[in-house]
Amino acid sequence: MTDLAIDIRGVTKRYAEHVAVRDLSLQVPRGAVYGLLGPNGAGKTSTIRMILDIIAPDQGTITLFGQKHTDTGVLDRVGYLPEERGLYKKMKVREVLKFLAQLKGLPAATADVRIDAWMERMSLKTADKDWGNSKVDELSRGMQQKVQFIGTLLHDPELVILDEPFSGLDPVNAQALKDTIVELKTRGRTVIFSTHIMDNAEKLCDSVCIIAKGQKVLDGSVSDVKAANAGNTVAVAFDGAPGTAVEAILRDTSLVAHVDGQNRILELELAQGASSGVLLQRLVAAGASLQRFERVQPSLHRIFLEKVGATGVEAGMSGHG
Amino acid sequence: MGKLKAIIMREYLERVRTKWFVIATLLGPIMFIALTVLPVLFVSRTKAAVTSSNITIIDATGLALADRVITELKDTAGVRPQVSLVSAAEVAAAESLATTAVMAKQREGYLVLDSSTIAGKAARYAGRNTSTLPDMRRISNAVENAVLNMRLEKEGISAARVDSLTKVDIRFEKTQLSEKGREKSGVATSIIGLMMSLLLYMVLLLYGQTVLRSVIEEKSTRVAEVVISSVRPEMLMAGKIIGIGCVAMTQLVVWIGSSAWIGSTLAPMLLKRNAAASARTDLATAAQTTDILSSLPSFSIGFLLAIVLYFVLGYVFYACLYAAVGSTVNSESEAQQAATPVAMLLILSAIFIQPVALAPQSTLSVVMSMLPFSAPIMMPMRMSITSVPPWQVAASLAGTTLACVAAIWFSARIYRVGLLMYGKRPTIGELFKWLKYS
């Protein structure tokens, strides 16, 4: 018995033209909520597919619950929500769910009971209407997403793998998903999800792994990651507009390496060798009326951008969603 | 195994429950009835109507020929012609009277018998039903027989003797001979062989394309990824092919079973009832149909086994190829083009059905029943029409089995990779690369 839900060691996956995942190792402890972060095309989906034995790695080993992931029955303990959702459109909702449960080795009778409970919980089965007897393509997209989510969790998996679970969700469903992830955690389940929405990762995850171009950039618990990257970021807010003298200080590259403005609050990344004390003195001397001056832990978003670099991020992608 | 069963059951139930399947399955026997029983029933429709006895016979022969005609009409319904015995001079007056009766719809028509009738030359009929051939044939037969009987009796042969002498009803039985001696066939078995190979061709094409569409549906709705996160792609493909194969089997069993029942029970029953009521000339047509029908259940167990074997092998071969094609495309419109090579193999087989049926022992026929892609259609047909040397059957079965194994191996590899590939369709070169992926 190991306390690792997932143990990936030295995994590489090559395709004809490129290397999707290069020598990746990561460990996910049982009961953790784990975020797999990275820009589009970083190798998140390839990694997840290898964990699920959908594709085979060219090198390296993958272990789930201390067993080889290709062993019989191991994948029955895993629930998977792919990035591209899909169900049999012409089938009745209940039949689809029963089928998905049977594929995980759940007996049909047990599945029936659980389907009812889940359908009620997701308000797909109410006093007025039981959507279970409707065909999938009669459901709205939001409802289909709920059905798919039920299908992922129906066999009560110990490990839940969600690939970009927040994409395409409206705020209500996104919140419901967050609540469910928290609930899974309290019940001792392990959740790993990929995302490029850093806010969600920061709020939900115990640990994260950032990958870019198929390689691991960093990993560890969220607090460790933040602590390791703390110390050179200062949050500053002014009363009113800063004067030209203040702006000149902010542009001084010997002092400030990078300014990230969000509304009235600026996140300043100090230049190499510069200290926050010097910056504060200079700002006060320049007559700035400071509302806030605070050394902060950088957000995951900040760390992500710093580590992956703007070049690793495709145009149009934002850390805030 | 429970998972494979779940996949098979899903494929099977989702299809068997559709309206399309129910309609197509019921349509089979209906078509068969249309092709076999209806023509027989049609024969009964061409029987002379009972009302064709409702006529006036103007007898100017002076020899009571009318009575003999009435006997020959052999009425069962009790409608008797009205006889008007007249002299030759009175015929015109009698005719105008009879015309009035026909116009008033009291009679169907009137028949004039005179001295030229006795001479065996002419009789006249006028009426509303002159364009109804069976009615006319019935009346003219009756007149001819009446004259014949009259002449024979004149020669001193009794009426009973006349009856037994003139009753000749030969059933003409045909057996085909070839350089190998007696062949078991005739026209009837070759028609059945032809029908069966067409049926096999239809089912292979239909259900091959069902597999194709099913793979594309799973791929394009992205449900495939969920499924293969639980089971191996090979199992999904196997379950799909087996499930759809069971659907095809169900349909075939219903079709063949109901056809056999219609052929062996229903049709002969109808024919018998029909034969009892119909005239002698109609019997020949009816007998021909009986010929075709009665040769249906005469196939041996070995032959039926061969059909099932060829169907299974042919289905697996084509289903695998269609599954492989389905996994390489993104949409159904793309699939039609990509599946052309596979469809061509089937169509090529279909084109040769007729030449092979007409000359089942020719070199072309032997070759077509040996090639793995056409053997499942050609060999059962040849076996039903002619006697095929056992070594040919064995060789063709072995070849088809080998081709099936190759198709399974090839398709499983293409399918596994193709199922997760979206975007551009792979080239032939890329497909070969896929085969090498572990």
Write the layout of secondary structure elements.
The complex is a heterodimer of chains A (321) and B (438).
Chain A lengths: L3 E11 L4 E11 L3 E5 L6 H8 L7 E6 L2 E2 L9 E4 L11 H11 L4 H14 L19 H13 L5 E5 L7 H16 L3 E6 L2 H7 L2 E6 L2 E7 H7 L4 E6 L5 H8 L4 E7 L2 E6 L5 H10 L4 E6 L4 H9 L13
Parallel strand pairs in A: 3-8, 3-9, 6-7, 7-8
Antiparallel strand pairs in A: 1-2, 1-4, 4-5, 9-10, 11-13, 11-14, 12-13
Chain B lengths: L1 H15 L2 H27 L9 E5 L5 H9 L8 E4 L5 H13 L5 E5 L1 H4 L5 E4 L5 H22 L4 H8 L10 E2 L2 E2 L4 H34 L2 H6 L4 H45 L2 H15 L6 H28 L3 H7 L1 H12 L1 H6 L4 H6 L6 H11 L4 H29 L9 H9 L2
Helix pairs in contact in B: 1-10, 2-10, 2-11, 3-6, 8-10, 8-12, 8-14, 8-17, 10-11, 10-12, 12-17, 12-18, 18-19
Give a short synopsis of this structure.
The complex is a heterodimer of chains A (321) and B (438). With 321 residues, chain A is an alpha/beta fold.
Q: What does it look like?
A:
The complex is a heterodimer of chains A (321) and B (438). In chain A, 32% of the residues lie in helices and 27% in strands. Chain A is built from 10 helices and 14 strands. A 6-stranded mixed sheet of chain A has the order 6-7-8-3-9-10, with helices on both faces. A 4-stranded antiparallel sheet of chain A has the order 2-1-4-5, covered by helices on one side. The longest helix of chain A is centred in the middle third of the chain and has 16 residues, at 171-186. Chain A is elongated. Mean pLDDT of chain A is 86; it is low at 312-321. Chain B is mainly α. Chain B is 70% helix and 5% strand. Chain B contains 19 helices and 6 strands. Chain B has helices spanning 2-16, 19-45, 65-73, 91-103, 115-118, 133-154, 159-166, 187-220, 223-228, 233-277, 280-294, 301-328, 332-338, 340-351, 353-358, 363-368, 375-385, 390-418, 428-436; strands at residues 55-59, 82-85, 109-113, 124-127, 177-178, 181-182.
